[in-house]
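Sync notes, pocket subgroup
Present: LS, DG
LS reminded everyone that the earlier model was apo-only. Rerun requested with magnesium ion included. Inputs:
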Amino acid sequence: MTNQNVIVSDRKPILGSKTITVSVSNSPLFSTSPPTYFTFPRRKLLQLLESNNMVGTPKISSWVDSMRDSSPTRLRSSSHDSVLENDDKNSWIVRFPSALNMFDEIVNVAKGKQIVMFLDYDGTLSPIVEDPDKAYITHEMREVIKDVALNFPTAIVTGRSIDKVRSFVKLNEIYYAGSHGMDIEAPVKENTCGENNQGVLFQPAREFVPMIEKVVKILEEKTKWIPGAMVENNKFCLSVHFRRVDEKRWAALAEQVKSVLLDYPKLKLTQGRKVLEIRPTIKWDKGQALTFLLKSLGYENSEDVLPVYIGDDRTDEDAFKVLRERGQGFGILVSKVPKETNASYSLQDPSQVNEFLKRLVDWKKKSVGEE
Ligand SMILES: [Mg+2]
């Protein structure tokens, strides 16, 4: 397998210089051969990254309604509603069939192709829990991810900081794309001195780190009177968690979050499952991270690659959309409830994700044995 690793050269602030140095190595994924470097104009990259897609800020009430609807445990008020809900679910599952039921069709398409696996973390590998600091994965899930990574290039793509998600996953064999893809690192390699060498591939929002730190402090102060509100620093972005906040206070919390942004026009708000997120207004998301990783693996124009992205949240839709537009690979939405999505298949929860990944590894091992 030929891989082309495209690497922003070091950890220096990339926005402080006129050029950005990127290294390219046509080397196997885990090779220790040194990359070659080239430099291109900083302005050009920034023009690509600067957001020109600022959407109108939604109303607080629409965020709150949407967050409420994203709760699968929400009770329906009447039997009429549950009949409608069942109808919805039946027609939805026809449109987005279970990836487990469609497994044979999926591996048929994968024959002779290199699967590249992209996995969201929260709600996909770990269950959604009240305390985001305790979103642990099971031992079984860790083992299966390790197996997946041994058989396919594998990346975890998450809104969390890399440090946080790595502390949960505890695996060195995979790519991590943290902060919604704004922080991408290659698998850890041990150098000849026995030291771990973490490969920073790309950090397009480095200049925003101090701003994010400042906004985290302001928001912690502004929200401390709201019981259960939690602000999480994800390094290049931040999350305000609503999960432990009384629903009656959601609008007030959203209002506080929105008010802070008035002073920070270079930051924007996005919404996830019971979370509001503040991110730099650069045009970079999980979909762009997927494209970047495919390119850095040498699969930009390959016909023989099958990217598979599994995720549960709105931010994962950017990646599903990229796959649809490429006409290559497919997205799998993790959801128990019908949702509009750009994915092709569905799985209900992390335990089904575990089963799907396990079957994929077994299929791969079997197909290698048959070659
Ligand atoms: Mg998620």
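DG: The pocket of magnesium ion is lined by residues 120, 122-124, 311-313 (CB under 6 Å).
LS: The radius of gyration is 21 Å.
Action: DG to write up.
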